[in-house]
Design a protein that fits this description.
Layout lengths: L16 H8 L3 H10 L17 H15 L1 E3 H8 L6 H15 L3 E5 L2 E4 L6
Antiparallel strand pairs: 1-3, 2-3
Length: about 120
């Protein structure tokens, strides 16, 4: 039995699952499952940012914000650097800030407030 996604299979891993689902007239979850069964990785995140954006890029943008602003709360970073971020994407940003703190690149001043570690050479 043919899937409506078959006609768009050449776009898997290049376009978002949502875009393919809209074109094929099916659900995003169906496209994700179809792609997963075939071992095709998710499409790279676009400039506008997506839930699966490259963590390295997120981290470099977070560090750039702290270098420019010195001290701030994780919510400020999310609001200013990633204003479109909602839900899981905001949690991803918070997780990356905590990781940078654990690696010694940021110092925690209080709950949710961080500053750049100037003694770290990166």
């Amino acid at each position: 039995m043919a899937s409506p996604i078959d006609a768009y299979s050449h776009l898997l891993g290049k376009a978002s699952d949502k875009e393919i689902a809209e074109a094929a007239g099916t659900t995003t979850n169906s496209v994700r499952a179809y792609r997963f069964r075939r071992g095709i990785r998710i499409a790279p995140a676009r400039e506008t940012g997506g839930r699966h954006a490259d963590p390295t890029s997120i981290r470099s943008q977070i560090l750039a914000w702290f270098r420019a602003n010195g001290t701030g709360q994780s919510k400020d970073v999310a609001d200013e650097v990633f204003p479109e971020a909602r839900g899981d994407r905001r949690r991803d940003i918070g997780s990356q800030i905590v990781r940078l703190y654990q690696e010694g690149k940021l110092l925690r001043l209080s709950h949710g407030t961080y500053t750049i570690n100037t003694s770290e050479t990166t």
